Each structure stands twice: as structure tokens, then as C-alpha cells.
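During the second half of the funding period, the structural biology subgroup turned its attention to how the target accommodates small molecules. The most pressing case was flavin mononucleotide, which had performed well in the primary screen but for which no bound structure existed. We therefore specified the complex as follows and requested a full 3D prediction, including the ligand pose.
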Amino acid sequence: MGKFTYNSLEQLKVNVKKLGLELPFSENLSVLERKLAFHGREVPNRLAIHPMEGCDGMTDGSPDKLTLRRYERFAKGGAGLLWLEATAVVREGRANPRQLYIHESNKAQFKQLCASIREDHQAIYGPKSQPYTVLQLTHSGRYSRPDGKPEPVIGTHNEYLDRFMPEHFHIITDEELERLEDAYVVAAGLAKEAGFDAVDVKCCHRYLNSELLSGFTREGKYGGSFENRTRFLRNIIMKIKSAWGNSIDVTLRLNAFDAIPYPYGWGSDQNGGKEPDLSETVRLVKMLRAEGVEFLDLSCGNPYYNPHIGRPFDMGPYIPDEEPLVSAARMLNTMRTIQQSVPDMSVIATGFSWFRQYAPFIAAGGIENGWFTMAGFGREAFAYPDFAADIFQKGQMDAGKCCIACGKCTEIMRDGGKAGCVVRDAGVYVPIYKAGREGKPSQQSNRIDAHI
Ligand SMILES: Cc1cc2nc3c(=O)[nH]c(=O)nc-3n(C[C@H](O)[C@H](O)[C@H](O)COP(=O)(O)O)c2cc1C
């Protein structure tokens, strides 16, 4: 696997050419300061922070001290849109006992979190500025561990993913899915009361909703045809809209493609080719636009099975066959295809953290050239929460503060700890990382047969 060895933007551009890739570049970073609005609610600039689970909530699902600390840092960092992390809509759908979980008894704590984000942002950027806030709603499906041990709930069997699961897994029934649709509606109502601008009906990374998109072999009304496989997602969106109207926006984080072969992967070539086939994804995005969704956040892959696809890394659980630059370029090019196929849908793109201090130039180039509408940052936000402020105030990111794509934030999660940046926020996260690693085998032992 190639290490990140670029000493200049020029060198990076040369390698992009050498590998026959295409990426957008612009040194006009002022495009990142352009405002926009979703459903009439202003977004102060084009930089977003992606949802990033900290696994640091309380047992009842409320934000705890480290959760509040993370969002305080994000709010002060100046990004125009904060997409809050995966938050369960039912207890059994939690990915771990510390995953956020919104319900009637803790809505006040979510309201407090939302209010603190606004206050922390305004303390720095003035009373007229507000970040746009999205709460990501989820059911973790095959990755559910509400009490710390696996309790998988699957949408469909999967030849590639089932072998990593314990034997006892439950295939969710049509009746259970119908009831779950209503749980999302209740959670969206609570998010509205808490003051969030939008809810995300999470549909990425092969959690339950995302898995159903690839349910080619599932029988009944949620499997088989395109209409059936997308039914759960579309029903939830429709029901939220009909229950809560314009009082809260509805959006989604969507996998553009899974990088798992057909008939087990969404966005996969049905003729067996290795590269994604985005025709169904584009079809779905067009339908969602027609149903009133104005923007979405695109991602891809599965963080357990093929993490190099959606979060290119320089150190990780296995050594992929391809350069991280190829993975990052693939991701951004799929977002370009979707944005250009549905130009009136605002696409928030993923794939910037691995580029370190050169990311703003790709973000600006992509927006200038119509590849996407906003640029979102994930791991970078853990490492360097004020990356946006530096871009706007200094015209650059500081290489010494950047994420180094070492994968330690993910390792903490897999070890059952509270996630953050071990390298740049060492005082808090080195002790957590070390405690989690005790007695664990080395990472490289987990190699899997990645599809791409
Ligand atoms: C520790 C960790 C937690 C994450 N939690 C979430 C999450 O809650 N929801 C989600 O959609 N993606 C989640 N992601 C994925 C990120 O949002 C993002 O897609 C990914 O890190 C790639 O973007 P980047 O290259 O900017 O890091 C998580 C990633 C990491 C490393």
C-alpha cells in the first residue's frame, strides 16, 4: 500500500496524472465560503463535518461529557454544517451500549446538545451565524450490539458478510420493518423538538437500511425489485414528511455503492465487473429529489468488510491492493457522477481526510467544477476540529494538525472504547487507546478479501 508521501500539491497532481486518475483542483478557496440554503435554512459555508460516532454516550443514550466536548470543538471550528453521529431509534438497534439513542425520556439532553452547539458557534462567529445541524437516525442491523455482545438483525443473507457474524442472527420480518418505520418518525419528532434543522435516515455502510437496498434475494415487499428494496427508506422519508411537514428537513447519508459483488451489494455491476454501477443509485437519488429531499451526504463501502473503499488509510486492518489515492479518487468521481446526473440535488462529498493539507484545493475544485456542492470531513474533524477556521482565516490547513489516516480512531471503536484522535488529541485518547489495545492481537491479523 502506498504511504502518503506528497511534499507539495504539484507532486500530488503529478501522481494523479501518472495513475490515469481525474481529480478537481482549484486554488480559489473563496468558493468554500459561499453560503447556501436548504429548505430556506441558511448554511454559512460549504464545509461540513460528517457524522462520526464517538461511542461515548451514557447508557440511556444521552450525550455524555466526551460527546459534549467533541461537539463543542466542532461548533467552534467554523464548519457550516454539522452532521451529528449515528443515533439509534430503538434500543435493540444500538451498535454499542454507548451509542447515542434518542427517546422521550432524554429529549431534553438532546435539546441541550443542540443549543450548546449554536451557542459555542455563535460565541466565535457572532449571533447572526448558525451552523446547520443534522441528526443521523439509525438501526445498526447486523452490527447491533445493544449490550456489548453481537445481536445481529439482518435484512437479507449475504455470502460475504454472514461469515463474520455469530450464528444466531435474526432476519427482520416485514411486520417488524413496518413498526420500525414508525420508530423513525417518532425519533424525527423528538429531533425536531430538540431543535435540529434536519434528520438523516441513515442509509449507508451496510447498517439495516443500507443492507435492504441490496436485498435482491429477500422475499416479500422489502426485497427483490428496486421498488421493494428501496421501500423501507422511502416509506420512512414519506412518513416523516407527512407527520412533521416543513418543521424539520429530511435528508440521508447514502451509500453510492457497497463494493460487494452482486447480488449482495448495492451499486455493484450486475455483470460481475469490479467497478461500481451507479444506475440504481442515480435512479434512487432522482426519486428522492422528486419527493422533496434537497441534499444528501454520499459515502460508500462497509467499514468492517472493505474500509479502504470509504475511508482511505495509510495504516489499517489489512493491506489493500490499491493505492489510497485510487480509492479516494474513485469515491469523489462517483459523487461527481451522481451530482451531475441530478444537478438540483445538493451533494455533500466524502473522501477528503486522506488528502491532509491539500484537501481544501480538491474541495474548492470540486465545487467550482460541479462535482459536488459541499465538502464533508470525517476523521479530519477528530484530529483538527478547527480546520474550517484555518482555511477561511489563513487560506490553508496546517500540515502539523492534520489527520494522518492511521486508523486509530476506528481501532478504538473496535476495541469497545470512546473514539477520538490518538495522535492530535493525545491527552484524552492515548490512555483510552492503550487500555483498549491491552491483550489485543495486532491489527494486520484481520486481513479480509476485499472486492476492489
Ligand atoms: C471513528 C469513526 C466513526 C464514524 N461514525 C460514523 C457515523 O456515526 N455515521 C456515519 O455515517 N459515518 C461514520 N463514520 C464514517 C465517516 O463519517 C466518514 O465517512 C469516513 O471517515 C470517511 O471520511 P474521511 O475520509 O473524511 O474520514 C465514522 C468513521 C470513523 C473513523
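Two results from this model are relevant to the next phase. The chain has one domain: 9-446. The pocket of flavin mononucleotide is lined by residues 50-53, 85-86, 136, 204, 253, 299, 310-311, 350-354, 377-380, 409-410, 413, 419 (CB under 6 Å).
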